Amino acid sequence: MKITFVYHSCFAVETGSCILVFDYWKDPAGVIPSVLSSPKPVYVFSSHFHEDHFNSEIFRWRERRPVSPDGSRPEVIYILSKDILRHRRAEKGNADIWLAKGGRWEDGNVCVTASGSNDSGVSWIVETGGRRIFHAGDLNNWYSRFLTDDFRGGLVRSTETGDLVDPLREEKFYLGELKDILKITDSFDIVMFPVDSRTGNGYTKGARQFIDRFRTGLFIPMHFSAGGFASAWRMKEFADALSIPFWSISRNGETFEL
Q1: Which of 29, 199, 221, 248 has the most neighbouring CB atoms within 10 Å?
Q2: Which pLDDT score is estimated for 73?
Q3: Which runs of consecutive H residues, i.e. helices, occur in the chain?
Q4: Do the strands 111-115 and 255-257 form a parallel or antiparallel pair, or are they unpaired?
Q5: Which domain holds residue 147?
Q6: Cα–Cα distance between 86 and 116 in angstroms, integer?
Q7: 41 contacts: CB under 8 Å, gap ≥ 6
Q8: 40, exposed or middle or buried, with CB in 10 Å at 0-12, 13-18, 19+?
């Protein structure tokens, strides 16, 4: 299995039989053309409608695939969160499979379960090539920076949206989603999870809470484009403490082989 970091929360995961592309936004290193030139079927996932996780450019990928001698093209299968449809970012016919939390779909290459998110859309559990993969989408403890030892509850104003939020309630919501995932499985061979320094002090807390609850074969940080590569490496010491392999991504287009 070869994993390529595309950008932000996007990865291309190649197995012996197929390629998975998660949450495409941008491709500064030019990874996607090589993905589309492969004869293997490509499964394209988008976890929710936010522009940094969904780009309608993906719907043009089918026509970019090479034509075989018999006039056919290798498959592109679109597996999207239903919130993309609900927010009118795509039409029903654009995707092959629309899933909400609890939805499941499989074929001969992949078995996909849409798990929950405390933000928008879903997270993904994908079994393929003998491995179980988790892509978090925007599942994370986004307001953990407010949960300091002297926090006694109450509302705070989000610097991202300007809305008033209750950090304790938000954390409870997040941990509730983890409990729901534990009902499905308690272990993953590969985990792709947000480690985003923009959220402030304690920005690794959500990821730490995740690896405390799930046996993890490889931890891969994502969603760190604004903070830079080195900001994501902060998570390595926590992974090391649990003897979890950690991919310290240092550039767009970098690959990791399992």
Answers
A1: 221
A2: 85
A3: 32-36, 61-64, 82-86, 167-182, 205-213, 229-232, 236-241
A4: unpaired
A5: 2-257
A6: 16
A7: 17, 18, 19, 74, 75, 76, 77, 109
A8: middle
**216-239 pLDDT per residue, tens:** 999 999 999 999 999 999 999 999
CA distance 145 to 138: 17
Counting the structural domains of the chain, the total is 1
**In whole angstroms, what is the distance from residue 125 CA to residue 156 CA?**
32
- The CATH number assigned to the domain holding 100 equals 3.60.15.10
pTM above threshold 0.85: yes
Distance CA 189, CA 198 (A): 27
- Per-position DSSP letters for 133-188, written without gaps between them: EEE-TT-S-TTGGG--TT-----EE-TTT--EE-HHHHHHHHHHHHHHHHTT-SEE
Q: Which of 197, 136, 185 is nearest to 9 (CA)?
A: 136
pLDDT at 199: 86
Q: What does the block give as tokens for 192?
A: 């792709």
Structure-block tokens of residue 7: 């950008």
Structure confidence at residue 135 as a pLDDT band (50, 70, 90): very high
